[in-house]
Amino acid sequence: MLILHCPYCGMDVDETDLHAGGQAHLKREGPGSSDEDFEDYLFLRENPKGVHFERWRHVYGCGKWFHAARCTNTLEVFGTYPAQTLEPPQEIRDKISGKRPGWSWGMFK
Amino acid sequence: MSNAVSALQGKVAPGEVTIREAGLRGMITLRGDLSDKQIRRVCTDMTDQKFPEAGKAHCEGDKGICWMSPDEVLLLVPYAEVNDHLTRIAVALKGKHYLAENVSDARALLYVEGEFAREVMAKLAPVNLHPDTFGPGDFRRTRLGQVAAAFWMRDEDTFAVICFRSVAGYAFDLLAASAKAGAVGHFVEG
Hints:
Chain A is built from 2 helices and 6 strands; from the N terminus they run βββαβββα. Chain A is α+β, with helices and mostly antiparallel strands. Chain A has one domain (3-99): Folate-binding fold.
């Protein structure tokens, strides 16, 4: 069972209070984009064994979306942060680098 | 005007821990920028309570302010006064970006009273209800069994639970079953 920290409520929240929202940091490809980019945006997802960034919604609580950085292998949670960002905050990246040196995920490392 | 009745009309399940429907209560959902002084002022003036921080509720008698999310509070007032308060909000916050809605008849309020009320709740919600982490003044939106609910402690032995009116029957039966099943002895006071 996952327990994530909701950055809005400031509470540790059980997985059953949350709703999983899939991969984080997707860039939308709208009208005018190439077919390859659109396919990538629509269908292709990271599926790592290790460091992963996900969207979660505190659905039974404040109802807000947030992001979580965690390890899909060990279920270790590196941290959570508000969704109003285009990339993981440096603090979270440093934390991951400390525990998983040399990690990379999509365009981040 | 039609005769307003609460969801379960004061139903009671007596026992060591008693479940009681609290009857009609005025509830106003207020959304907006909670750091805004005027919004805070109208909340505190209406309820005579201090404005709560995140995850807290200040309630006394049938008045209170509950922190629901970073941009939402639930104001508790006497049922008969709801419309007066809505008018007051509309006057005080004229021109501001906010939303205030009377949700009194969309919700139900239940009380869980008794020595092991804490355990009755802990069995149903995925929340750490240890006395060190959850006490009077704390407020939590979560789920109760299969439905959304919010609760706070009125005192050491009493929980107040708010749920949607449509699921009040389920929530009441769930709490009553949990109370009937007895104490677990998990939170032994030492």
